[in-house]
Amino acid sequence: KGSVNSYTNDASLLLPVNALTGKYYVAAWQFWQSGYPGMLAVTATEDGTVVTVNPKAAVSAGGGAPSFPANQNTSATLNKGDVLQLLNHSGDLTGSFVTATKPVQVIGGHHCTQVPIGTAACDHLEESIFPYETLSDHYIVTAPAVPSLPNGKIQNVRIIAVEPNTTLSYDPPQSGAGTFLANPGQFVEIRNANSFAVSGDKRFLVAQYMNGQDAGGGTGDPAMTLAVATAQFRREYLFHAPTNYETNYVNIVAPTGATITLDGTVQTGFTAIGSTGYGLLRVQLPKNGNHRIEGDMPFGITVYGYGQYTSYWYPGGLNLEKF
């Protein structure tokens, strides 16, 4: 407001109630320091909803909610509009498992944290978690650009198992990236600025974390998004990029040979991603708010923007088909 800047914000893609289910694996971030916990929040859409959480980190009782010991099932009953928020003061809630007897919304993230830990500055993380039933076995991951790093800034990527004994592969290969996750909730973490596809023999979840401004690039700070499975790509998106950020971008991932039109202009200059058959184009957006992007084949987008020590990031949309 006025001359007061925002430093601890993020953006999330809100999902329609009819797409929600009762089964989620959560992406969050580790506890940083006192007063800066990771979090997950569950919102009921109907009265009498029994929510059961098996968290990867212990959560103390408070605000009428019971304590949630790590790696144990604990339940609470919510009515329509009630929110169960879990904050961890040690460990990491990533990989926590949420089930409910009726459809619920689940959001994961962090109060304010550094990415990576030890690199300034702290920023808020949040994203609406995709239901288990909408996850798939093939994703394409791209890093965010900044004006001084047009080919992408280093990010952290977490590939989170939602089934036992999940085998992963990468195109192109990613140095040091794990290829096997034995248990649901376990994750592989990669830190680089590469574009790559990750495939599995079972469905899984992919979370991406923007690094802090002092990690390079001279702008931005931590933000969080979820990668969208290629099976959920759409042919058309309407999206918003705020007019009061210094820079805004859209990353477009499209099949080779697709025709993509952004605000009426055909987009060219895609760079091939390994041998995936997909290409990437990063577009810096004008400061005019709303945008329409269309293609003659299904494609995916992520939207993000920066100011000094602040940023946001969200998936531009998806089909939310249940598999």
Structure description:
- With 323 residues, the protein is mostly beta strands.
- 0% of the residues lie in helices and 47% in strands.
- The protein has strands at residues 21-25, 38-44, 49-54, 74-78, 83-88, 97-113, 123-128, 136-141, 155-161, 166-171, 180-181, 187-192, 196-210, 224-226, 234-241, 247-255, 260-262, 265-266, 271-272, 278-284, 289-307, 310-315.
- The strands form three sheets. Strands 15, 16, 17, 18, 19, 20, 21 and 22 form an eight-stranded antiparallel sheet that branches.
- Strand 10 and strand 11 (180-181) form a beta hairpin.
- The protein is globular.
Largest sheet: 8 strands, antiparallel
User: What is the total tally of β strands?
Assistant: 22
Order of helices and strands: EEEEEEEEEEEEEEEEEEEEEE
Low-pLDDT residue intervals, each spanning 5 or more residues = none
Gyration radius from CA atoms, angstroms: 19 Å
**Overall geometry:** globular
Task: Record the SSE blueprint.
Layout: E1 21-25, E2 38-44, E3 49-54, E4 74-78, E5 83-88, E6 97-113, E7 123-128, E8 136-141, E9 155-161, E10 166-171, E11 180-181, E12 187-192, E13 196-210, E14 224-226, E15 234-241, E16 247-255, E17 260-262, E18 265-266, E19 271-272, E20 278-284, E21 289-307, E22 310-315
Antiparallel strand pairs: 1-6, 2-5, 2-6, 3-4, 3-6, 6-7, 8-13, 9-12, 9-13, 10-11, 10-13, 13-14, 15-21, 16-20, 16-21, 17-18, 17-21, 19-20, 21-22
